Each structure stands twice: as structure tokens, then as C-alpha cells.
Structure prediction request, 86 residues.
Amino acid sequence: MTDEQAQTGELIEFIVRHVIRRPRSEITANTPLVSSGMIDSFALVDILLKLEDVSKMRIPASKVQPKDMDTVNLMLSTAKRVGKPR
Prediction:
């Protein structure tokens, strides 16, 4: 398993267990989360903190838009694009 696959899995598990809180929910790295209404803007704060933890990057919230957080793949791409190593 690559580091990116591990990060993807960890983010998906966090979102399912702690954000949408439906353990039987199935989401993938490309499931629309924000645009579908599955998660709201308040949840994005918790997800951004987890994204920083998973990616080991410091991500300035001012550089992140809700569209950047719509899918797990977009989240990880955003971390790479705007994040700075811790």
C-alpha cells in the first residue's frame, strides 16, 4: 500500500466514523461530499485538521475553498498544492 493510499483510507474512515457518523456508509476517494450535502461547512474544519494530520502538512485555511474539499482526492491534492511541510 502506498502512502497516498494509506492517507486516502485514513481520511475516508475519519469522515465515515466521525463526520457523517454512519459506519455503514460507503464513500470512495471520488464521492462528492460537500456538493451532495453529505457534509457541511462546519464539518470542513474538523476534516481540514485531520487532513493536516494525515498529510503531515500545515494547510492555511485561507487558501482552501469548499470546492477544494468536495472529495477525498481533492482534499489530498489541495494539501499537496497549498500545504507546507511541518
The chain has three helices and two strands.
